[in-house]
Amino acid sequence: MTNEDVSVAATFYKAPFKTSIHLHSFQVHHSSFHFRMKITRMGQWLSLLICLLLLLKAEGVPVGITYVQSAVAKGAVCLDGSPPAYHFHKGSGAGINNWIVHFEGGGWCNNVTTCLSRRDTRLGSSKKMDTTLSFSGFFSNSKKFNPDFYDWNRIKVRYCDGSSFTGDVEAVNPATNLHFRGARVFAAVVEDLLAKGMKNAQNAIISGCSAGGLAAILNCDRFKSLLPTTTKVKCLADAGYFINVKDVSGAQRILEFYSQVVQTHGSAKYLPASCTSRLSPGLCFFPQNVVSQISTPIFFVNAAYDSWQIKNILAPGAADPHGQWRECKLDIKKCSQNQLGVMQGFRTDFLRAFGAVGNSPSKGNFVDGCYAHCQTGTQETWLRNDSPVVGNTTIAKAVGDWFYDRRPFRQIDCAYPCNPTCHNRIFDQNKLPEE
């Protein structure tokens, strides 16, 4: 009770002959109190609702799906033969002729068995894809949360071929109905976007996350060749710098896996010839063997302790039969000193492989010391008050400065756990550690 309620109760007690009057007074005050409480609660709920709406606005805007039906006649299809798809949020104002074409990630399939396991999922069929995706971070339409690119045309290309958009096998086995046509999907999507206005692009960025980040690296020069010569084209690879290292058991599994991906999908002819003329096609799936020959300006966003690579390249389940790495892979804070030592070794290997990027002024990088994977498409890691910084700079600022030639940006963070701004990923205990 408030002091006012106590005072009313005391008055009621002291005046028994005016009970009805004071009882009425008490009821009025009591009702007034509850009314004010209801108003206060309504105000709190309204404030909460407004905060949630602002948060949703900050965190993402829903964008519907577009199916590229015309691609089917060209054989540019998903693993199951369905048409490719993308989500397109149109630009406005000064950004109307600027384009971001982003390629989704989701691993790879390396043989008929693993491709069949993807065929009837969103990673192999546009029939299984969500019809709406949320755009935030690098794709946000908010000037506050994406100051350099908010008014651009922003496209997320869905991933349904399993080869980082590099495959092209003409034959289709009727028993499996698997189509290995990632390179055709890439060409068909770009052609469709050119017809929708990208042919007038003043600025264009090809980007991607994870397997899509690798696609942005492998297709960087190809993308530029498909756009008008007057367009300023640059490439952005987020978590796409996969390295060729042995796992904790000493096996060279990722090299074998990539070689099988390239063989299954017939990718060799769509990998950079500057690499395949020197090395086996499987080795040309690794950025470290390709990046030095890329002529189009390119920026790399990567965690030195890339969580996907730690989980699937350094310590995959096959190399860890007793599950000793399971807890560590789910949460870096649960790693033993020995495991952290192995992960520091992975960082050393990563930086050595990353050295292949060289010192060209057209290349830039933001390599943080975080346990993370894909950081451009999430608002909390792209640009927010608590976003990760390297060299006192957020990812959004680094990419914007580099793209607009305000200043070069090439920063490599110190070793874990030195960066307090990191958003280190923690994975659900009930889910498999593989993504």
Automatic annotation (TrEMBL):
<comment type="similarity">
    <text>Belongs to the pectinacetylesterase family.</text>
</comment>
<keyword id="KW-0964">Secreted</keyword>
<dbReference type="GO" id="GO:0052793">
    <property type="term" value="F:pectin acetylesterase activity"/>
</dbReference>
<dbReference type="GO" id="GO:0009505">
    <property type="term" value="C:plant-type cell wall"/>
</dbReference>
<comment type="function">
    <text>Hydrolyzes acetyl esters in homogalacturonan regions of pectin. In type I primary cell wall, galacturonic acid residues of pectin can be acetylated at the O-2 and O-3 positions. Decreasing the degree of acetylation of pectin gels in vitro alters their physical properties.</text>
</comment>
<keyword id="KW-0378">Hydrolase</keyword>
<keyword id="KW-0961">Cell wall biogenesis/degradation</keyword>
<keyword id="KW-0134">Cell wall</keyword>
<dbReference type="InterPro" id="IPR004963">
    <property type="entry name" value="PAE/NOTUM"/>
</dbReference>
<dbReference type="GO" id="GO:0071555">
    <property type="term" value="P:cell wall organization"/>
</dbReference>
<dbReference type="Pfam" id="PF03283">
    <property type="entry name" value="PAE"/>
</dbReference>
<dbReference type="InterPro" id="IPR029058">
    <property type="entry name" value="AB_hydrolase_fold"/>
</dbReference>
<protein>
    <recommendedName>
        <fullName>Pectin acetylesterase</fullName>
        <ecNumber>3.1.1.-</ecNumber>
    </recommendedName>
</protein>
